[in-house]
Amino acid sequence: MALTQSTIINAVASNKPLKLSDSGGLFLLVQPDGSKQWRFRYRFSGRENMLALGSFPTLSLVAAREKRDALRQEIVDGVDPAIKRKLERAVAATAANTTFGLVAAEFLEHVKANGAAERTLFKYRWMLQELASPIAQRPIANIMPAEVLMVLKRVEKSGRRESARRLRSVMGAVFRHAIVTLRATNDPTYALRGALLKPIVQHRAAITDEKEVGRLLLAIEEYEGWPTIRAGLLLLALTMVRPGDVRGMRRSEINFERAMWRIPAERMKMRRPHDVPLSTQALAILKEIWSLSDNGDLVLPSIRTIRRPLSDNAMNVALRRMGYAQNEMVAHGFRATASTILNERGFNPDVIEAALAHQDNDVIRRVYNRATYWPERVKMMQAWSDLLDEFKKGSVGNRRVA
After folding, report:
1. Which residue of 285, 324, 356, 359 has the fewest CB atoms within a 10 Å radius of its CB?
2. Residues 125, 321, 332, 366: which is the catalytic one?
3. Which candidate in 65, 242, 247, 377 is catalytic?
4. Which residues span the domain enclosing 319?
Protein backbone atom coordinates (compact mmCIF):
# COMPACT_ATOMS: atom_id res chain seq x y z
CA MET A 1 0.00 0.00 0.00
CA ALA A 2 1.37 3.42 -0.97
CA LEU A 3 2.41 5.75 1.81
CA THR A 4 0.49 8.87 2.81
CA GLN A 5 1.68 12.07 4.45
CA SER A 6 -0.15 11.30 7.69
CA THR A 7 1.28 7.78 7.85
CA ILE A 8 4.80 9.14 7.56
CA ILE A 9 4.28 11.88 10.15
CA ASN A 10 2.73 9.51 12.71
CA ALA A 11 5.24 6.66 12.19
CA VAL A 12 7.30 5.89 15.31
CA ALA A 13 9.99 3.21 15.69
CA SER A 14 10.57 1.32 18.93
CA ASN A 15 13.79 -0.62 19.53
CA LYS A 16 14.71 -1.23 15.90
CA PRO A 17 14.28 0.60 12.57
CA LEU A 18 10.78 0.53 11.09
CA LYS A 19 10.48 0.02 7.32
CA LEU A 20 7.51 1.65 5.56
CA SER A 21 7.21 0.60 1.91
CA ASP A 22 5.77 2.87 -0.77
CA SER A 23 5.99 1.44 -4.31
CA GLY A 24 8.49 0.78 -7.09
CA GLY A 25 11.30 0.02 -4.64
CA LEU A 26 10.86 3.22 -2.59
CA PHE A 27 10.56 2.93 1.21
CA LEU A 28 11.03 5.02 4.34
CA LEU A 29 13.27 3.86 7.16
CA VAL A 30 12.14 5.21 10.53
CA GLN A 31 14.95 5.10 13.10
CA PRO A 32 14.50 4.71 16.90
CA ASP A 33 15.91 8.22 17.34
CA GLY A 34 13.01 9.61 15.28
CA SER A 35 14.91 10.34 12.05
CA LYS A 36 13.32 9.20 8.79
CA GLN A 37 15.37 8.37 5.67
CA TRP A 38 14.26 7.56 2.17
CA ARG A 39 15.75 4.50 0.49
CA PHE A 40 15.45 3.07 -3.02
CA ARG A 41 16.00 -0.63 -3.66
CA TYR A 42 16.52 -1.91 -7.20
CA ARG A 43 18.07 -4.68 -9.28
CA PHE A 44 20.58 -4.16 -12.07
CA SER A 45 22.16 -6.96 -14.10
CA GLY A 46 20.76 -9.49 -11.67
CA ARG A 47 22.26 -7.81 -8.61
CA GLU A 48 20.31 -6.03 -5.89
CA ASN A 49 21.41 -2.59 -4.73
CA MET A 50 20.12 0.23 -2.56
CA LEU A 51 20.55 4.01 -2.62
CA ALA A 52 19.93 6.67 0.05
CA LEU A 53 17.80 9.49 -1.35
CA GLY A 54 17.53 11.91 1.57
CA SER A 55 15.68 12.58 4.82
CA PHE A 56 12.06 13.40 5.52
CA PRO A 57 10.71 16.12 5.76
CA THR A 58 13.58 17.82 3.86
CA LEU A 59 12.76 15.47 1.01
CA SER A 60 8.98 15.24 0.80
CA LEU A 61 6.98 12.21 -0.27
CA VAL A 62 6.31 13.76 -3.69
CA ALA A 63 9.97 14.64 -4.21
CA ALA A 64 11.08 11.17 -3.12
CA ARG A 65 8.77 9.57 -5.68
CA GLU A 66 10.13 11.90 -8.39
CA LYS A 67 13.68 10.83 -7.54
CA ARG A 68 12.62 7.17 -7.61
CA ASP A 69 11.04 7.58 -11.04
CA ALA A 70 14.15 9.27 -12.42
CA LEU A 71 16.34 6.45 -11.10
CA ARG A 72 14.05 3.81 -12.56
CA GLN A 73 14.33 5.54 -15.95
CA GLU A 74 18.13 5.37 -15.69
CA ILE A 75 17.87 1.64 -15.12
CA VAL A 76 15.64 1.31 -18.18
CA ASP A 77 18.30 3.25 -20.13
CA GLY A 78 20.96 0.77 -19.04
CA VAL A 79 22.60 2.96 -16.39
CA ASP A 80 23.35 1.66 -12.90
CA PRO A 81 22.38 4.55 -10.56
CA ALA A 82 24.92 3.48 -7.90
CA ILE A 83 27.83 3.47 -10.33
CA LYS A 84 26.69 6.78 -11.83
CA ARG A 85 26.59 8.36 -8.36
CA LYS A 86 30.13 7.12 -7.59
CA LEU A 87 31.41 8.60 -10.84
CA GLU A 88 29.70 11.92 -10.14
CA ARG A 89 31.26 12.04 -6.67
CA ALA A 90 34.69 11.29 -8.15
CA VAL A 91 34.28 14.05 -10.73
CA ALA A 92 33.14 16.48 -8.03
CA ALA A 93 36.10 15.56 -5.83
CA THR A 94 38.51 16.04 -8.73
CA ALA A 95 36.94 19.39 -9.58
CA ALA A 96 37.20 20.51 -5.96
CA ASN A 97 40.92 19.68 -5.95
CA THR A 98 41.57 21.28 -9.35
CA THR A 99 42.02 24.82 -8.15
CA PHE A 100 42.83 27.93 -10.15
CA GLY A 101 46.23 28.06 -8.46
CA LEU A 102 47.14 24.52 -9.53
CA VAL A 103 46.07 25.08 -13.14
CA ALA A 104 47.89 28.44 -13.18
CA ALA A 105 51.12 26.71 -12.05
CA GLU A 106 50.69 24.15 -14.83
CA PHE A 107 50.04 26.94 -17.34
CA LEU A 108 53.28 28.68 -16.30
CA GLU A 109 55.23 25.46 -16.89
CA HIS A 110 53.57 25.17 -20.30
CA VAL A 111 54.57 28.74 -21.20
CA LYS A 112 58.12 28.12 -20.00
CA ALA A 113 58.40 24.93 -22.08
CA ASN A 114 57.34 26.93 -25.14
CA GLY A 115 60.38 29.16 -24.72
CA ALA A 116 58.92 32.29 -23.12
CA ALA A 117 61.43 34.89 -21.99
CA GLU A 118 62.28 34.93 -18.30
CA ARG A 119 60.89 38.44 -17.87
CA THR A 120 57.61 37.27 -19.43
CA LEU A 121 57.48 34.36 -16.97
CA PHE A 122 58.26 36.76 -14.13
CA LYS A 123 55.32 39.00 -15.10
CA TYR A 124 52.97 36.03 -15.47
CA ARG A 125 54.00 34.64 -12.07
CA TRP A 126 53.46 38.01 -10.44
CA MET A 127 50.00 38.40 -11.96
CA LEU A 128 48.80 34.84 -11.31
CA GLN A 129 50.40 34.24 -7.92
CA GLU A 130 50.05 37.72 -6.43
CA LEU A 131 47.27 39.66 -8.13
CA ALA A 132 45.00 36.61 -8.67
CA SER A 133 45.67 35.11 -5.22
CA PRO A 134 42.06 35.64 -3.93
CA ILE A 135 40.82 32.84 -6.21
CA ALA A 136 43.89 30.60 -6.05
CA GLN A 137 42.17 27.98 -3.88
CA ARG A 138 38.85 28.05 -5.73
CA PRO A 139 37.89 25.05 -7.94
CA ILE A 140 38.54 26.44 -11.41
CA ALA A 141 35.36 24.92 -12.88
CA ASN A 142 33.22 26.79 -10.31
CA ILE A 143 34.69 30.28 -10.68
CA MET A 144 32.11 32.80 -11.85
CA PRO A 145 32.67 36.03 -13.84
CA ALA A 146 31.72 38.08 -10.76
CA GLU A 147 34.62 36.58 -8.80
CA VAL A 148 37.10 37.36 -11.55
CA LEU A 149 35.72 40.90 -11.87
CA MET A 150 36.21 41.44 -8.14
CA VAL A 151 39.92 40.53 -8.51
CA LEU A 152 40.34 42.76 -11.55
CA LYS A 153 38.53 45.74 -10.00
CA ARG A 154 40.74 45.55 -6.93
CA VAL A 155 43.81 45.95 -9.16
CA GLU A 156 42.11 48.65 -11.21
CA LYS A 157 41.16 50.68 -8.13
CA SER A 158 44.81 50.71 -7.06
CA GLY A 159 45.48 52.81 -10.16
CA ARG A 160 46.98 49.99 -12.27
CA ARG A 161 44.49 49.95 -15.12
CA GLU A 162 46.88 48.43 -17.63
CA SER A 163 47.84 45.70 -15.13
CA ALA A 164 44.15 44.89 -14.65
CA ARG A 165 43.62 44.49 -18.40
CA ARG A 166 46.72 42.32 -18.76
CA LEU A 167 45.65 40.25 -15.78
CA ARG A 168 42.29 39.55 -17.44
CA SER A 169 44.13 38.33 -20.53
CA VAL A 170 46.51 36.06 -18.62
CA MET A 171 43.74 34.67 -16.42
CA GLY A 172 41.76 33.95 -19.58
CA ALA A 173 44.71 31.93 -20.89
CA VAL A 174 44.66 29.86 -17.67
CA PHE A 175 40.93 29.17 -18.00
CA ARG A 176 41.37 28.16 -21.64
CA HIS A 177 44.18 25.82 -20.59
CA ALA A 178 41.75 24.26 -18.12
CA ILE A 179 39.14 23.88 -20.87
CA VAL A 180 41.44 22.07 -23.30
CA THR A 181 42.61 19.76 -20.48
CA LEU A 182 38.96 18.96 -19.60
CA ARG A 183 38.95 20.62 -16.19
CA ALA A 184 36.62 23.50 -17.01
CA THR A 185 33.88 24.19 -19.53
CA ASN A 186 33.99 27.96 -19.90
CA ASP A 187 36.22 31.02 -19.63
CA PRO A 188 34.59 33.56 -17.26
CA THR A 189 36.92 36.33 -18.43
CA TYR A 190 35.18 36.31 -21.83
CA ALA A 191 32.07 37.88 -20.31
CA LEU A 192 34.18 40.72 -18.86
CA ARG A 193 35.25 42.29 -22.14
CA GLY A 194 34.68 46.01 -21.81
CA ALA A 195 34.13 45.79 -18.05
CA LEU A 196 37.42 47.49 -17.18
CA LEU A 197 38.40 51.13 -17.52
CA LYS A 198 40.74 52.02 -20.38
CA PRO A 199 44.37 52.57 -19.35
CA ILE A 200 45.58 56.13 -19.06
CA VAL A 201 48.29 56.38 -21.69
CA GLN A 202 51.43 57.90 -20.20
CA HIS A 203 54.06 58.63 -22.82
CA ARG A 204 57.63 58.27 -21.58
CA ALA A 205 59.29 61.63 -21.19
CA ALA A 206 61.86 62.40 -23.88
CA ILE A 207 63.83 65.42 -25.05
CA THR A 208 63.39 66.01 -28.79
CA ASP A 209 64.81 69.52 -29.19
CA GLU A 210 68.24 69.15 -30.80
CA LYS A 211 69.93 71.82 -28.68
CA GLU A 212 68.51 70.29 -25.48
CA VAL A 213 69.71 66.87 -26.62
CA GLY A 214 73.20 68.33 -26.99
CA ARG A 215 73.06 69.75 -23.45
CA LEU A 216 71.88 66.37 -22.14
CA LEU A 217 74.77 64.52 -23.79
CA LEU A 218 77.28 66.99 -22.35
CA ALA A 219 75.76 66.47 -18.90
CA ILE A 220 76.10 62.71 -19.31
CA GLU A 221 79.73 62.95 -20.44
CA GLU A 222 80.54 65.10 -17.41
CA TYR A 223 78.67 62.78 -15.01
CA GLU A 224 81.05 61.77 -12.22
CA GLY A 225 79.15 58.73 -11.01
CA TRP A 226 79.83 55.08 -11.69
CA PRO A 227 81.40 54.71 -15.19
CA THR A 228 79.04 51.93 -16.31
CA ILE A 229 76.04 54.22 -15.66
CA ARG A 230 77.58 56.97 -17.77
CA ALA A 231 78.43 54.47 -20.51
CA GLY A 232 74.95 52.94 -20.34
CA LEU A 233 73.27 56.30 -20.90
CA LEU A 234 75.53 57.12 -23.85
CA LEU A 235 74.94 53.69 -25.40
CA LEU A 236 71.18 54.21 -25.05
CA ALA A 237 71.54 57.42 -27.02
CA LEU A 238 73.74 55.82 -29.69
CA THR A 239 71.99 52.48 -30.25
CA MET A 240 68.22 53.22 -29.92
CA VAL A 241 67.64 50.02 -27.94
CA ARG A 242 65.64 49.52 -24.74
CA PRO A 243 67.25 50.16 -21.33
CA GLY A 244 66.86 46.52 -20.33
CA ASP A 245 68.80 45.42 -23.41
CA VAL A 246 71.67 47.80 -22.63
CA ARG A 247 71.78 46.72 -19.00
CA GLY A 248 71.83 43.06 -20.03
CA MET A 249 74.53 43.50 -22.70
CA ARG A 250 77.11 40.69 -22.60
CA ARG A 251 80.66 40.58 -23.90
CA SER A 252 79.85 37.50 -25.98
CA GLU A 253 77.24 39.53 -27.91
CA ILE A 254 79.70 42.17 -29.14
CA ASN A 255 81.60 41.70 -32.40
CA PHE A 256 84.20 44.47 -32.66
CA GLU A 257 85.43 43.36 -36.09
CA ARG A 258 81.96 43.57 -37.64
CA ALA A 259 80.96 46.54 -35.45
CA MET A 260 77.81 44.68 -34.45
CA TRP A 261 75.93 43.82 -31.29
CA ARG A 262 73.63 40.79 -31.51
CA ILE A 263 70.92 40.72 -28.84
CA PRO A 264 69.62 37.14 -28.53
CA ALA A 265 65.92 36.36 -28.97
CA GLU A 266 65.36 35.43 -25.32
CA ARG A 267 66.25 38.96 -24.25
CA MET A 268 64.16 40.72 -26.88
CA LYS A 269 60.60 41.88 -26.30
CA MET A 270 59.48 40.49 -29.67
CA ARG A 271 61.24 37.14 -29.10
CA ARG A 272 63.52 37.37 -32.12
CA PRO A 273 67.26 38.25 -32.27
CA HIS A 274 68.12 41.85 -33.02
CA ASP A 275 71.37 43.00 -34.61
CA VAL A 276 72.51 46.50 -33.70
CA PRO A 277 75.07 48.37 -35.85
CA LEU A 278 77.75 49.95 -33.65
CA SER A 279 79.00 53.35 -34.74
CA THR A 280 82.60 54.38 -34.17
CA GLN A 281 81.42 56.40 -31.17
CA ALA A 282 79.63 53.40 -29.65
CA LEU A 283 82.67 51.17 -30.21
CA ALA A 284 84.88 53.76 -28.49
CA ILE A 285 82.66 53.75 -25.41
CA LEU A 286 82.68 49.94 -25.27
CA LYS A 287 86.47 49.79 -25.53
CA GLU A 288 86.76 52.41 -22.80
CA ILE A 289 84.81 50.36 -20.26
CA TRP A 290 85.65 46.86 -21.55
CA SER A 291 88.19 46.17 -18.81
CA LEU A 292 85.56 46.74 -16.10
CA SER A 293 84.02 43.39 -17.00
CA ASP A 294 87.21 41.37 -17.48
CA ASN A 295 86.17 38.88 -14.79
CA GLY A 296 82.58 38.46 -15.99
CA ASP A 297 80.37 38.51 -19.06
CA LEU A 298 78.20 41.55 -18.32
CA VAL A 299 79.49 44.65 -20.10
CA LEU A 300 77.73 47.01 -17.67
CA PRO A 301 77.93 45.27 -14.30
CA SER A 302 76.36 46.58 -11.14
CA ILE A 303 78.25 48.81 -8.74
CA ARG A 304 78.15 46.06 -6.10
CA THR A 305 78.93 42.90 -8.11
CA ILE A 306 80.04 41.96 -11.62
CA ARG A 307 77.55 39.08 -11.57
CA ARG A 308 74.55 41.38 -11.84
CA PRO A 309 73.70 44.12 -14.33
CA LEU A 310 72.91 47.71 -13.43
CA SER A 311 69.62 48.03 -11.57
CA ASP A 312 66.42 49.02 -13.35
CA ASN A 313 66.50 52.52 -11.94
CA ALA A 314 70.24 53.30 -11.95
CA MET A 315 70.22 55.34 -15.16
CA ASN A 316 67.02 57.20 -14.26
CA VAL A 317 68.50 58.16 -10.88
CA ALA A 318 71.57 59.48 -12.69
CA LEU A 319 69.36 61.64 -14.91
CA ARG A 320 67.63 63.05 -11.84
CA ARG A 321 71.04 63.92 -10.34
CA MET A 322 71.91 65.76 -13.53
CA GLY A 323 68.83 67.90 -12.99
CA TYR A 324 66.40 66.22 -15.40
CA ALA A 325 63.00 65.66 -13.81
CA GLN A 326 60.96 62.54 -14.48
CA ASN A 327 58.58 64.46 -16.72
CA GLU A 328 61.52 65.76 -18.79
CA MET A 329 63.62 62.71 -19.58
CA VAL A 330 63.76 59.00 -18.69
CA ALA A 331 66.14 56.26 -19.82
CA HIS A 332 63.58 54.79 -22.18
CA GLY A 333 63.08 58.23 -23.74
CA PHE A 334 66.26 58.02 -25.81
CA ARG A 335 64.36 55.82 -28.28
CA ALA A 336 61.71 58.50 -28.76
CA THR A 337 64.46 61.14 -29.04
CA ALA A 338 66.16 59.29 -31.90
CA SER A 339 62.92 58.32 -33.65
CA THR A 340 61.52 61.86 -33.57
CA ILE A 341 64.65 63.64 -34.78
CA LEU A 342 65.51 61.07 -37.46
CA ASN A 343 61.97 61.19 -38.84
CA GLU A 344 62.02 64.98 -38.83
CA ARG A 345 65.31 64.94 -40.74
CA GLY A 346 63.85 62.73 -43.47
CA PHE A 347 65.40 59.34 -42.75
CA ASN A 348 63.50 56.31 -44.08
CA PRO A 349 60.74 55.47 -41.55
CA ASP A 350 61.06 51.75 -42.30
CA VAL A 351 64.76 51.82 -41.47
CA ILE A 352 64.00 53.69 -38.24
CA GLU A 353 61.37 51.12 -37.27
CA ALA A 354 63.82 48.31 -38.01
CA ALA A 355 66.42 50.00 -35.78
CA LEU A 356 63.84 50.25 -32.98
CA ALA A 357 63.09 46.50 -33.38
CA HIS A 358 59.38 47.17 -33.72
CA GLN A 359 57.25 44.24 -34.87
CA ASP A 360 55.83 44.47 -38.39
CA ASN A 361 52.42 42.78 -38.64
CA ASP A 362 53.19 41.60 -42.18
CA VAL A 363 55.41 38.50 -41.91
CA ILE A 364 56.80 38.78 -45.45
CA ARG A 365 57.49 42.48 -44.99
CA ARG A 366 59.17 41.75 -41.64
CA VAL A 367 61.56 39.20 -43.18
CA TYR A 368 62.25 41.54 -46.11
CA ASN A 369 63.01 44.47 -43.80
CA ARG A 370 65.38 42.43 -41.69
CA ALA A 371 67.27 41.19 -44.74
CA THR A 372 67.27 44.47 -46.66
CA TYR A 373 67.78 47.27 -44.19
CA TRP A 374 71.07 46.25 -42.59
CA PRO A 375 73.28 48.45 -44.86
CA GLU A 376 70.83 51.34 -44.44
CA ARG A 377 70.79 50.89 -40.69
CA VAL A 378 74.59 50.88 -40.52
CA LYS A 379 74.69 54.20 -42.38
CA MET A 380 71.84 55.67 -40.36
CA MET A 381 73.32 54.73 -36.99
CA GLN A 382 76.65 56.29 -37.90
CA ALA A 383 74.85 59.39 -39.17
CA TRP A 384 72.86 59.52 -35.92
CA SER A 385 76.03 59.31 -33.82
CA ASP A 386 77.60 62.10 -35.90
CA LEU A 387 74.46 64.20 -35.42
CA LEU A 388 74.72 63.74 -31.66
CA ASP A 389 78.29 65.02 -31.80
CA GLU A 390 77.07 68.08 -33.71
CA PHE A 391 74.35 68.65 -31.09
CA LYS A 392 77.01 68.60 -28.37
CA LYS A 393 79.23 71.06 -30.22
CA GLY A 394 76.27 73.38 -30.65
CA SER A 395 75.63 73.31 -26.92
CA VAL A 396 79.20 73.96 -25.70
CA GLY A 397 79.19 77.09 -23.60
CA ASN A 398 75.40 76.81 -23.22
CA ARG A 399 75.25 73.97 -20.75
CA ARG A 400 72.18 73.24 -18.67
CA VAL A 401 72.36 74.41 -15.07
CA ALA A 402 70.85 71.78 -12.74
Report:
1. 359
2. 332
3. 242
4. 210-395
